[in-house]
Write a structure and sequence with these properties.
Belongs to the GMC oxidoreductase family. With 541 residues, the chain is of the alpha/beta class. The chain has 13 helices and 25 strands.
């Protein structure tokens, strides 16, 4: 069968939601995915993220364009290429945005996307074991508190109180500001990606087909309407046709790339590559937003506070046994075990800085320069703690552009991190907040000093230099096919591509602005709402 009611491009977080919800009422659905099944064992072990972020088969292997504001470095830019997409390789963090994030979307013309309208969709997707005000408990996506709470987290919470910030029992509860432990997309010892939560259960339905290991070449547009998708699989090309709609869910990098390959995007740039221009849409590929992280390292006074020794040498197999037998231990950890949200300036309506981390620290990489890099995944010999600092609402905007008309060639990704002066200032304020927190009295005798960047970095210029030379993405790209009420927005508030019938985009690329959070929970909620919009349109037809 090569014709379906809906063709969904991408089996990442959004695509898995759509596959499940659109097929639930009997519509025929095809999901096209470039990657293969999620069989790799490191996918299902929470701490396995450190082993697969740059895996040659499970990710796209993207690298950014070098940029002066980030030390002229080409940064790894991991995106999942496997069932579940980036939800199969991420750090499992389940974090809602601040309510004002979504209210700002609505204020920008995204009617129906304010907090009150989106809250039911956050609740719909969640199966939060802890329950609580405003939380969902019966959705497909399991969400759990940490399987192991490291002993350091208690003193860290007291240190937050000591600097005037509250401690929250639920980081996704009514109040966001302050200290909280992370929640994970996990059930017991195992990661539960969107593929496991939504896609795999739905594959039992005869009306849902998954076409994996298939490279999407372009969207087929006939008479101003999207009618299908051209793909290459096992060396052969074919067209998978859609009777109702094509839904593009290839992510903040893949979705604009595929639109541009289809002749939808900045006309002059497409014509220069020999691509026939179907519609000149400069907004496609623009507005790329991401969180940029600077990792600070702190020395701890004793190994009881740190997991460094637990994952080194002969002790790592013991942790593996603990994971298998008890379902806890370091292999259930995420890169973020705790978080501190704070406002660093008066008058802000939401936190502008997020600090997160865990009681692990990584060995420095050999190399020249003032600020050595890190060997992520290789623990230091001495006990340590890592604190990641990032600005919640960056002003910097980047882009995704085609490098070639060949769909197999990676696009040019230019995040333009720290290109806005306000972002640089905010990041420095966040690093100073981290220092104030980690030197608070409750941590006396536990935190023995700062290792990275260290006390030699005294001035704002020193701290910024360190952040620019060593920082990187938090893996939250979004905004490259934004929705909005203005005609320059590629999508209308129904997520329909302007000027092309039968074509929607549903993934992180539709965000007008990046939310104050890790973004996967928002992607799931957007996809849940999009499924309702699509089904309502079918009923009205």
């Amino acid at each position: 069968m090569s014709e379906f009611d809906y063709v969904v491009l991408g089996a990442g977080s959004a695509g898995c939601v759509l596959a499940n919800r659109l097929s639930a009422d009997g519509a025929s659905v095809a999901v096209i995915e470039a990657g293969g099944p999620d069989r790799h064992p490191w996918i299902h072990i929470p701490a396995g993220y450190a082993k697969i972020l740059t895996h040659p088969h499970l990710t796209w292997g993207y690298r950014t364009e070098p940029d002066a504001a980030t030390g002229h470095r080409a940064l790894d830019y991991p995106r999942g290429r496997v069932w579940g997409g980036s939800s199969s390789i991420n750090g499992l963090g389940h974090v809602r945005g601040h309510p004002t994030d979504y209210d700002l979307w609505a204020q920008k013309g995204c009617t129906g996307w304010g907090w009150e309208a989106l809250l039911p969709y956050f609740q719909r997707h969640e199966a939060f074991a802890g329950g609580g005000e405003g939380r969902g408990t019966e959705g497909p996506q399991p969400v759990e508190h940490l399987a192991e709470v490291p002993p350091l987290l208690g003193p860290l919470a007291e240190a937050a109180r000591a600097i005037g910030l509250p401690v929250q029992a639920d980081m996704n509860g009514p109040e966001r500001e302050g200290f909280a432990t992370f929640q994970q997309t996990r059930r017991g010892r195992r990661r539960v990606s969107a593929a496991r939560a939504y896609l795999v259960p739905a594959l039992r339905r005869p009306n849902l087909s998954l076409i994996d290991r298939a490279l999407a070449l372009r969207i087929v547009i006939e008479g101003g309407r999207a009618t299908g998708v051209a793909i290459r699989r096992d060396g052969a090309e074919q067209v998978v046709r859609a009777r109702r709609e094509v839904v593009l869910s290839a992510g903040a990098i893949g979705s604009p790339q595929l639109l541009m390959l289809s002749g939808l995007g900045p006309g002059e740039a497409l014509a220069a590559l020999g691509i026939p221009v179907m519609r000149d849409m400069p907004g496609i590929g623009a507005n790329l937003q991401d969180h940029y992280i600077a990792r600070m390292g702190f020395r701890l006074a004793a190994h009881r506070w740190s997991a460094n020794r637990r994952i080194a040498g002969w002790r790592l197999p013991l942790e593996a046994l603990r994971w298998a037998m008890r379902g806890d231990g370091v292999l259930t950890w995420s890169p973020g075990m705790f978080s501190l949200f704070s406002r660093t300036l008066p008058g802000l309506e939401a936190p502008d800085i997020q600090l997160n981390g865990g009681p692990l620290s990584w060995a420095e990489a050999p190399g020249e320069g003032r600020w050595p890099g890190l060997c992520i995944g290789v623990p230091e010999v001495a006990p340590g703690l890592t604190i990641g600092v990032w600005q919640c609402r960056p002003e910097s905007r980047g882009s995704v552009a085609l490098a070639s008309p060949d769909p197999a060639v990676a696009p040019r990704i230019a995040p333009r991190h720290l290109s806005a002066a306000a972002d640089r200032d905010c990041l420095v304020r966040g690093m100073r907040l981290a220092r104030r927190w980690l030197t608070a009295p409750p941590l006396a005798g536990i935190v023995a000093g700062e290792a990275r960047p260290g006390p030699a970095a005294e001035s704002d210029a020193d701290l910024l230099d360190y952040a620019q030379a060593t920082g990187g993405t938090v893996y939250h790209p979004c905004g490259t096919v934004r929705m909005g009420g203005d005609p320059a927005a590629p999508l209308d508030p129904q997520l329909r591509l302007r000027g092309v019938a039968g074509l929607r985009v549903v993934d992180a690329s539709v965000f007008p602005d990046i939310p104050v959070c890790n973004i996967n929970a928002t992607v799931l909620s957007v996809a849940e709402k999009a499924a309702d919009l699509i089904r309502a349109a079918a009923r009205a037809a």
